[in-house]
Amino acid sequence: MEYETPLFFHVMQYADRADRDVVDMVSGNPDWEPPEALREGLRDYASLEPDRFQYGPSEGLLELREEIAARRGVDAEQVIVTNGAGEANYLAMARALERDSGDEILLTDPVYPYYPGKTTMLGGTQRFVATDETGQLDPADVRDAASEETAAIVVNSPNNPTGAVYPAETMEALVEIAEAYDAILVSDEVYDHYDLSGEFASALESDSAHRIVTNAFSKSMAITGFRVGYAIFPPELVENAKSRHMLVNVATTRPPQYAVLRALRETPPEYYEENRALLRERVDTFTDALDAAGAEYTTPRGSFYVMARFEDYPGTLENVERLIDEAGVAGMPGEAFGDSRSAWLRFALVTPRVEEAAERLATYFG
Ligand SMILES: Cc1ncc(COP(=O)(O)O)c(C=O)c1O
C-alpha cells in the first residue's frame, strides 16, 4: 500500500521555488506571538536538572494531564498527551477501528485531508457525507449514511477548510448516532479558541462512552512546531490507546509540555481574545477584496480559512500554481478537500500580509 503525501507539502515547495515574491496562504501556521508564559517556561526548562531531560511519563506529564482534565471536566486518567492533534486523531481513529464494530469511517465532504489519509493507513474504508454550502453538517444525512459497518464518525468544528461552527444540537445528535450504531464520534476541536461565532459546542458536553475529543495547543497558543496535543477517551477505551501511544512514541517530548503547562496556568483570556480580534480584522479585509474580485466565498465563523471561488478558475493544483506565478498568492486547491469543493480555493489567514494578498487577488481577478 502506498500512503499519500499530503498535497499541502507540494504547494509549499512550489511557492518556495517561485522566482517572485509570494504571499503564503497555504499553511495553518499562526504568525502571531505565543503566550509570554510559554517562552518563560521554555527558558526555565533549560536550567532544570538532567533528570528532566530523560523520559517523561508516556501518557504525558501528570500535572499537564490534570490541568487539561480540570479544564475539560474529565478525569486525568482519560487524558493522553499526544504529538499534536494529529496523533490524537490517529489514536482515536485506530481505537474506533480495533473495536470490531465495523471498519467504515464517516467523514464530511469537504474534509481535512489527513482524515482520509489516516483511514486508509489504518485499513479502514471511508464514506463521505456532504455538508451544505456554508459547511454545516445535517445530522439526518449522517444518520442516513450510518450502518452496522460504521466504526467512527470524524468531525471538526470550527472547521478546516469551511470555517463552519457546528451548533450544540448537531454535536448532541452526532453523539446519539454514534451510540445508536455502536460507533465512536471523534470530535477534532483544534480550532476551539478561534470560534468567531460564539456558538462553538464541544462534544464533551454530552457524556458518552461513544465519543473521543481531540485537541492541541498548536493553534490556540500559536505553537504548531511544539507538538503538544491531547485526546480525551471514555474510561473504557483509554487503556489500549495509551499502549498504542507508548509503542509508537515511547513518550512525548517533555520541554514543550512543561512550557504549555506554564502557559495554561498564567495566560489571561485577553491573549486568546486578541488573536480572535486579529483574525476578525483579517476576515473583513480579505472578504472585502474578494467582493472587489467578484468572487464567491463563505465568511468563516471559526478557524483560519476562507474558501473562495473565482469565475472560470477551478481549484485545481494547476490553477493554484498559476496563481502563485501570476498573482504572487499561494492558496490550497479546493480539490484537496474533496469533490464538492473542486471549483474552490482555500486561503489561510495566518500571514501579516493578508491585505497585500487581498489586493493582489482583487487586481488579478478584478
Ligand atoms: C482540523 C485539523 N486537525 C488537526 C490538525 C493538526 O494539528 P496538530 O498540528 O496539533 O497535529 C490540523 C492542522 O492544521 C487541522 O487543521
CATH architecture of the largest domain: 3-Layer(aba) Sandwich
Q: Give me the side-by-side strand order of the main sheet.
A: 2-8-7-6-5-3-4
- Unreliable stretches covering 5 or more consecutive residues: none
User: What is the succession of H and E elements?
Assistant: HEHHEHEHEHEHEEEHHHEEHEEEH
For the CA atoms, what is the radius of gyration?
Answer: 20 Å
Our count of domains comes out at 2
How many extended strands? 13
- C-alpha geometry: globular
CATH homology-level superfamily of the largest domain:
Type I PLP-dependent aspartate aminotransferase-like (Major domain)
Q: CATH class of the largest domain, please? A: Alpha Beta
What fraction of the residues are assigned to beta strands by DSSP? 15-25%
Are any ligands bound, and if so which? pyridoxal-5'-phosphate
Secondary-structure-derived class = alpha/beta
> What is the CATH T-level topology of the largest domain?
Aspartate Aminotransferase, domain 2
End-to-end Cα distance, whole Å, is 45 Å
Count of helical segments?
12
Q: Write down the overall mean pLDDT.
A: 96
Q: Tell me about the biggest sheet?
A: 7 strands, mixed
Helix content: 25-40%
